[in-house]
Amino acid sequence: MTDDTRTNEPSRRRRRFPGISSRAYEHPADRSALVALRKLTGFDTVFKALSGLLPERSLRLLYLSDSVRVSEEQFTHLHAMLRDACYILDLAKVPAMYVTQNPQPNAMCIGLDEPIIVVTTGLVELLDEEEMRAVVGHEVGHALSGHSVYRTVLLFLTGLAVKVAWIPLGNVAVLAIVTALREWFRKSELSADRAGLLVGQDLHASMRGLMKIAGGNHLHEMNVDAFLAQADEYEKAGDLRDSVLKILNVLPRSHPFTTVRAAELRSWAETREYQRTMDGHYPRREEDKDTSVTDSFRESAAHYADTVRTSKDPLIKLVGDIAGGAGDLGGKLRDRFTGGARGEAPGTGPAPE
Predict the structure, then answer these.
(1) Which of 122, 185, 180 lies closest to 151 in space, CA to CA?
(2) Dihedral over Cα of 203, 209, 214, 216: its sign
(3) How big is the CA angle at 183 (ends 134 and 160), to the nearest 5 degrees?
(4) pLDDT 10s digit of each residue in the chain, 353 long?
């Protein structure tokens, strides 16, 4: 008789992080964007009201009735990954997880009192075991960070914005909060990507998963280095007009662009912070209550200052020039918008050799 219990064992041993705090993997931009969100006029009032009104029980019944719940009897390989991810990140209560029929590859963690993880069939069919393990870790990271609460509010307000679009002032108020929530959520995805790497502990698998989400199940046609080169080209290409277009393109999105996520994750994997975490030196949950808000602000400010200093984006570089007291601001603005050298009309500079 075959022993099927071995199929639920991880394919290899992975490091566990007892008592790990979400601060160990949270992106500085995630924390600072959440602080900015909470300062938004009216957000606290809306959030408290929605916390009591959102039909969470209805949401749970919906997935229970019209999706497949992951368990020891259904999608057993996902069940094993989920339990393994919770074990690695030391999340005591394993969230409920559902697979829902949708060809679009996607996953989310929602819920106010208790998080629910939902993955689509498109994602399950697209990713291999190690790639999927990183995604499950990503969603468990959302649960550990408490992101599911704000994600649920975002989903509700997005639907509400459509319903009240005919009310001028009401629509403006809702859209302001939705826009701020999306900005925060995009940053929170960078944190969750890091959590996925801590769970999967395979950077190549995380990269492959992001490439597949961007380009489909044609891994033999894709290359990690070339994919990351796209992120570099995206960041530094063009002039200020392109920088403005980038902002407009990303505003309606709940997630950062895939190449940007891949580049951010690789950069973090190369830091001493990541290596120290893997070596067992990381912030503990028991220390969260003693965490200084001032230190968190300082860390976020340092991150943004470093981003401005090292960024290749034309708009961000201009911000750095202004902050650094660069002269001839008018000329710099003209050059960045036109792509031309100072004193020359665009296209009239020296001919290429």
Answers:
(1) 185
(2) positive
(3) 105
(4) 333 333 444 456 899 999 999 999 998 888 777 766 666 666 666 666 666 666 667 778 888 899 999 999 999 999 999 999 999 999 999 999 999 999 999 999 988 778 999 999 999 999 999 999 999 999 999 999 888 888 887 777 776 555 444 444 445 566 777 777 787 888 899 999 999 999 999 999 999 999 999 999 999 999 999 999 998 888 776 665 656 676 667 666 767 889 999 999 999 999 999 999 999 999 999 987 765 555 555 665 555 555 545 555 454 454 444 444 444 444 544 454 445 544 444 444 444 44
Please identify which of the residues 139, 233, 270, 344 carries the catalytic annotation: 139
Distance CA 117, CA 97 (A): 5
Spatial separation of the C-alpha atoms in residues 182 and 161, rounded to whole Å: 13
> Based on the number of CB atoms within 10 Å of its own CB, is 127 exposed (0-12), middle (13-18) or buried (19 or more)?
buried
The burial class, CB within 10 Å (0-12 / 13-18 / 19+), for 148 is buried
C-alpha–C-alpha distance, residues 73 and 333, integer Å: 62
Sorted by sequence, the CB contacts under 8 Å of residue 219 that are 6+ apart come out as 208, 211, 212
- The contacts of residue 135 (CB under 8 Å, 6+ apart) are 107, 119, 123, 127, 196, 209
Whole-model pTM: value is: 0.75
139 is catalytic: yes
